[in-house]
Amino acid sequence: MFTASLFIPAVLASSIAYAVGSVSAAILICRLMNLPDPRESGSGNPGATNVLRVGGKLPAGLTLLGDALKGLLPVAITGLIIPHQPTVALVAMAAFLGHLYPMFFDFRGGKGVATALGALFGLSMQIGILATVTWLVICLAFRISSLAALITFTLVPLYLLTGGHSAFALVYVVIAGFLYYSHRENIKRILAGTEPKLGKS
Fold it and tell me: What is the pLDDT averaged over residues 121-140?
């Protein structure tokens, strides 16, 4: 676990990761491209799906990339500097929470799927690819993005555990719990059969 020599580096790396996660790609890209504030338009969620609604494919793609990099970069860099699984896992969690509760934007963040996936790629490229394929297969089958994300991140801890990444698996159990909470309205619509499908209004 954490020794005395690792405690301060872990806290510092996690603090930086939280700050990086707090940078909202959706809000900044919408400001730069003179688009409506995603917190005040569409679904009110500062994420790539809502940016697609209010601005189109290019700003949505940039938002998706930015959100994923917020998870990937802190995790990958920490893994190179501090090759200690619990520390890297903590950094992944911090970046994810920064996206959900950004200190720079009144703690009103997005739902966290892209940042969680980006962090996963930083932890394990193979499992990141497996999670992406899982999401794509479920999306193609049901055409419901939120359902695909929820099922994917329910399976991710199992993927990590079978891959020998026990510290990462524990963190992704917690991340999955937060994702279910951030998607609680989507879950209600899925159960009611009213959740919008991809390609439809």
Answer: 96
Q: What is the DSSP string of the chain?
A: ---HHHHHHHHHHHHHHHHHHTS-HHHHHHHHTT---TTTSTTS--SHHHHHHHH-HHHHHHHHHHHHHHHHHHHHHHHHH---HHHHHHHHHHHHHHHHS-TTTTT-----HHHHHHHHHHH-HHHHHHHHHHHHHHHHHH--HHHHHHHHHHHHHHHHHHTT-HHHHHHHHHHHHHHHHHTHHHHHHHHHT-PPPTT--
Query: Contact, 56 vs 135, CB < 8 A?
Result: no
Tokens 């695909």 — which residue?
148
Contact between residue 127 and residue 120 where contact means Cβ atoms under 8 Å apart? yes
Residue 66: both structure tokens together: 């930015």
At residue 124, the pLDDT reads 93
pLDDT of residue 66: 97
17 Cβ contact partners less than 8 Å away, ≥ 6 residues apart: 74, 75, 78, 91, 92, 94, 95, 98
Rounded average pLDDT over 32-57: 89
151 contacts: CB under 8 Å, gap ≥ 6? 134, 138
How distant, in Å, are the alpha carbons of 100, 116, 130, 172 from that of 94?
A: 10, 10, 23, 12
